[in-house]
Every structure is written in C-alpha cells, then in structure tokens.
Specification:
homodimer; about 220 residues; alpha+beta; Glutaredoxin; Glutathione S-transferase Yfyf (Class Pi), Chain A, domain 2; 2 domains; 4-stranded mixed sheet; 4 strands
Chain lengths: ~220, ~220
C-alpha cells in the first residue's frame, strides 16, 4: 500500500527524522518531506506537535503522529503489506524496544548537560553494550532485525553518520574494529543495503551542516 | 493462557512495578512477586537487569524483560487470549504510546533534579493536557482504553496513589474536580473497577511507606 497522503515534517540532517524516512522507505510508502527549521518553528509544526514542538512529525491523511520511535512503530502497524520492521516474536519485540530506548537515553539525552569527556565515555560504554546486543539480536545474521533492516537497525542506524562527525570533531574513535567489530561491519552493511543506503546520513554532508551552524552561532554571538 | 512460570522482581509501592501487576491481572496471568529492595539490589536483580539495575523485571520462563512500559507491551503481545491492553487501531496505539511516554517524562523524570515548585507546576500542566487526552482517547467511554482498562489507564493509573500522597505532603491539589473533572472521575472508576481495584495503590499505605523511608533517612543522617 503506497500512498501519497503522507507528509513528514522534518529536517534531513536530523537522525530522528531519518528514522521515519528509513521506515517509510522500507515500506515503500511515498511521502513528502516538508523541511522544517527546528530553530524557527513553523505554524504547522506548532499545530502538529503542540506538546513537544519538535520534528519529526508524520501526517498521514488526517492523522498526526509525533516522536520518532512511535512513528516508526505506527508505520509498521499501518502499512502491514511491506516487510515487518519490528520482530514478530513478543520477546524479540520487547528486546528491540529495550535497546531502542537505551540508544535514545545514551546518545540523545547524554548530549544536553554533561561535560564532553563524560559524554564520550557514555557513548563508548553504550556502543560496547550494543555490540553485545547485536550479537544476541542478529543471531548470526546481517542486521539486528535478522536478514533485513528492522526497528533497532533504524534506531541505531540513524546515529551512525553523527557518530562519525563526532569522531572527526572530538578525535575519539567510536567505530573501532578492535572493540566493536560486529557493529562496525553492521554499519558498513547499512550503508550498502539497497533498501536504505540512499537515505543513510553521509558524514561529509553532516559535517557541512555542523560547520554552517557553528559559523551562524559564532556570527550571532560576535 | 495462565501460567505460573512468571516472576516479577519488584517492590509493591513502586508505580512502575504496579503497571506490570495491573497488566498481568488484566490478562489473568498468575505470577509470583519477588519483593526486591530497590536500595539493596539483589544478585537476581543485578543479573536480570544489568543495564539499569531497576525494578520491575518480568521473568517469563527463561526470558527476562525490563522497563515497565516495555513489559506491559510484552504482556499484551505474549498473552493474546486475554483482553487487549493496547488499542487495536494503529493510530490509537500510537497516541497511547505518545501519552504514556509523556507521563513518564512529566511524572518520573521531573522528580529528580528540580525545585519543588517547578515539579508541582509540571504535574499541574501535565494533568491538564492529560485531561484533554482522556477526552480524545476515551471517546465518551469509561477509560482511556474505551470500555475496559488499557495501556494508558495502566500508565497513568499507577501514579494516582502517589499523586494523592504528594497532595497530602505538599498541600497541592492535583485531582481537582473543577480543573480536571474527567480525570478525577476516571481515577474513581479505576479504584472500583473489578479488574484492577485490588492492585490500585492505596494512599494510606503509600504514606506509611513514605514516612518509614523518611524516618530511616533521618536516622541514617543523625
């Protein structure tokens, strides 16, 4: 079921918007991305997500859904004809939800009020646990979701581009083959998977966005 | 499907443990509650939830699931014979997940590092939005979930007892019929619903627990 009554309010460099885009690609759902500046909130954004006032927002016909992981689950529930995004087994689903929530806790919430070294430490620690999670969830297959890209691949995959940017900016080495070999190879597979490779966030483009924002913020405070 | 191979690691006054207990009651699943002191973490707790080291933990045969809302969804997925906990419609499910996450953000995460007045303000604000959410979700029926107790009823219902305790301790009035009439009547219905009334957290018992902890903490610092 491909429809064109699907709109995503988002900004392409946002890892959370990227999750929604990946899920729509997997389900072959046509959509329109309405670029929405997260710093200058549009009327449509404020009306669509009055509680959090954040992207992404998915508008499907007359329905509005917010919060990236909730949107991804909605997409899986609403377009049942495409490949499944969440695992079908109740326990596997629970584990996927657990690690997805963990990713947001470690990689999103960490960024706001902590010292740089503490943040880097949290990311390292998180990736080591996620390496183990990958081994358990993938059961020897290519992705967290098995043979194809699933919920956890989306939840973590959207962060890979920004992790690489953080490596460049901080000098840290996150995607280290000696420490997390499975995750490093998993990330490479994501960037070459026919289903999502054209929506994976590219490091050089994110770096450009970052530099642009830095320049704007320097100019504003000058 | 009622089994006795279900164990909950928890402490009965915990609202998050209460969610799991409510969901098991709704599904008529027999379980054993292993009282687990959250301040003196048992070996079993550390082994079962090495990432967060927190209750509740659900152990179902050889499977271990953590995080209350994830456990409730697991219970709904694993025991399909009982009444549904999450709505069946994809959009209604998304909305239920959205507000459940909101409840945790407003009522749990608020408690950790903020001034008392800021916390009370957040709770007021949250309840006003949840009053609106109730009107939209219940569609004129008794519960968020419609005719019977569902996911959002569980997510918020577990907090009612502690809200009443906070009212007594702070002098604030949260469950105010002039401001949130639908939620006040909804809470009364929960406390008399045949399915969950015997597991709803009672104010006087929670107050006793609170006073005991206060006394212990005073003694420890004396």
């Amino acid at each position: 079921m491909a429809t064109s009554d699907v709109t995503v309010l988002g900004a392409w460099p946002s890892p959370y918007v990227n999750r929604v885009v990946m899920a729509l690609k997997i389900k072959s759902v046509e959509y329109e991305l309405v670029e929405t500046n997260p710093h200058r909130k549009s009327e449509l954004l404020l009306k669509s997500n009055p509680v959090h006032k954040k992207v992404p927002v998915l508008i499907h016909a007359d329905k509005t859904i917010c919060e990236s992981l909730i949107i991804v689950q909605y997409i899986d529930d609403a377009w049942t004809n495409g490949p499944s995004i969440l695992p079908s087994d109740p326990y596997d689903r629970a584990i996927a939800r657990f690690w997805a929530a963990y990713i947001d806790e470690k990689l999103r919430d960490a960024k706001e009020d902590e010292a740089k070294t503490a943040i880097l430490e949290k990311i390292y620690e998180g990736l080591l646990l996620l390496e183990e999670a990958f081994i358990n969830c993938s059961k020897g297959k290519a992705f967290f979701g098995g043979d194809s890209v699933g919920y956890l691949d989306i939840a973590l995959g959207c962060q890979v581009g920004w992790l690489k940017v953080t490596e460049i900016l901080s000098g840290a080495k996150f995607l280290d083959e000696t420490k997390i070999p499975c995750l490093v190879r998993w990330a490479e597979r994501l960037y070459s998977d026919s289903c999502v490779k054209d929506v994976m966030l590219e490091t050089h483009m994110l770096l450009e966005v970052f530099n642009k924002f830095q320049a704007m913020s320097t100019a504003a405070s000058a």
